[in-house]
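**User:** I keep going back and forth on a fold encoding question. It is easy to fool oneself when nobody else works the same problem. Could you pick a protein and write out its sequence and tokenised fold? Could you put it straight underneath, so I can go through it closely?

**Assistant:**
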Amino acid sequence: MTNLILSEIHGGVCTFTLNNPSKKNALSLALLTEFENRLEQLQENDKLRALILKGTDDYFSVGADLADISGTLEDQEIDDRIMQVCNLMQLLPIPCLVAVEGPCVGGAVSILLGCDIMVASENAYFEIPAIKLGLLYNPVSMKQLHARFGSGILTRLFLLGERCTAHTLLQTGMAGEIVQDTKAYQKALKIAQNITDTGEAFSATKSLIIALENGEYDLSHWKNIREKNLCSTERIASINKVKKKLGID
């Protein structure tokens, strides 16, 4: 590991920090590869209850590292790496939160697709200058952004090249919380610490939401999962716990 992604775990909450300060956390191939490796390691950790991704107090990420861009088909590797990072976050059976301060640009916006909850500070902004770079953005990412947030925000981000504030994204549902500058991580950590139920029901619900965003319409598979869930030992234990709390025999 080259420490382009810093990792620490406290109280069941893992924090990943983008650590490429000399390039304002540009998403180099080296950083994305390390990101993948660290996420793969988390897949085997059943003690975690949340993951938080963050940048620094000044910037989240300025997007793809231009030093790795050649203007050839080889540039598709950056798209592939970003999508793999998103897929690995989505596979985690725990909530993935992201704390955004300052700029979140280009491919960094796509990274957000792997997260379940976003906390942004007042100084956060979001921009995708793909057209300025003569680029048709990754269609897979655009499809997912469209499914989650609709055409309006895509038009503003892509066609108009607009720099969208955190408040704009809050209105679209893209941002879940807005806080004072430098406070995004603290808020994300508080949310993560308040999440206590991350068992099979949480994992299945997270996976179903992702499947629906990806256009899955045949729900027979999910009906089978729900039937098993209805009589699972985890559900029975949860029901008994709530009944005991409420004084119900």
